[in-house]
Amino acid sequence: MSLLRDRRISALLAAEVISSLGTQMTWLALPWFVLRTTGSPQRMTWVIIAELLPIGVLGFFGGLIAARVGTRRTMLVCDIARAPIFASIPLLHSAGWLPFPVLPALVAASGLFLAPYFSVQRSVVPELVGEEHE
Q: Residue 89 contacts by C-beta under 8 Å, 6 or more apart in sequence?
């Protein structure tokens, strides 16, 4: 319980809950959005592949990125970069400027930032608390 009193840990926990909740909601909402707007399960599959492919390919380099940039900074940059990408989807759709090829491109761009995020997600806690609490 003493760890939860640490402001850094509490802030990390709150940020992680918000980020993970947003990611999980996106993984449910995005395929539904594609299916609902296009009526095509095949296009829905392509959008899912567009997000997962960069994660699978670039996931191996997440540790290298974190070593150069830093664990906390990597997490922060990845979350901040993904927010406008996903915010642009409903904005472009409502303006009528979201042709289907743009959607997988935006989702793939998001996947580029998810790969390093997932790589460092588990290593940030030991970095914050240090060796004495492990």
A: 30, 33, 98, 103, 106
